[in-house]
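ARCHIVE CARD
Drawer: 12
Card no.: 0347
Subject: one protein chain, sequence and derived structure
Cross-reference: see card 0346
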Amino acid sequence: MKRREAQWIGSGLVALAAWALACPAWAGPPVAATTQAPAAAPAPSWIGRVVPPYPDGLKSNTGSCVGSGSAPEQICARSIGTLDDAEDRSLKFYAGEFAGREGNEPRWKITDVVPYPKLKRGEYVSVATCQRDGVDDPGLIAIVDTAVPDAAAQEMFEARRWAVRLDRDSGKFVDVPPASVRCYNEGFGAE
């Protein structure tokens, strides 16, 4: 199986698991926007907005729950999602705080926004499938390099160049040293 197909299968499994938890499960390809995404101050107009609906003609193709505990109301208390344009290019990541439901669809109050990083050849953005210092943390987002020798046999990839973590208390993204982050190879074991 080709690496790209394995990544899509792995991404699909992650999305299915998130959907099973009744949280937003959106799937979409990683797309470029800026060179590096520092955890910097976002445009004030985003903070406090409740989505969906998404403003300015945007949508969200990818997202994951970020729990703060094991009680039902804590499992999906926060989320990480992408803000994508009409051509499905991911432009930003947003941090969301659960704000209720409209029908079966969860709604999120945006608490922070960071630019989506520009990817180099062989790089991939891992969302909610990483560890920091050996401990799983669904609040991590990192760039990983998948263009390594024998990539399909690697259970985990080292983070490269950029990593952020959603702080559950503040609802803000904070920079994390990439050297402390490893992310699961979502296609590992797929044949």
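Annotation on reverse: The longest strand covers residues 90-102. Helices lie at 3-20, 72-75.
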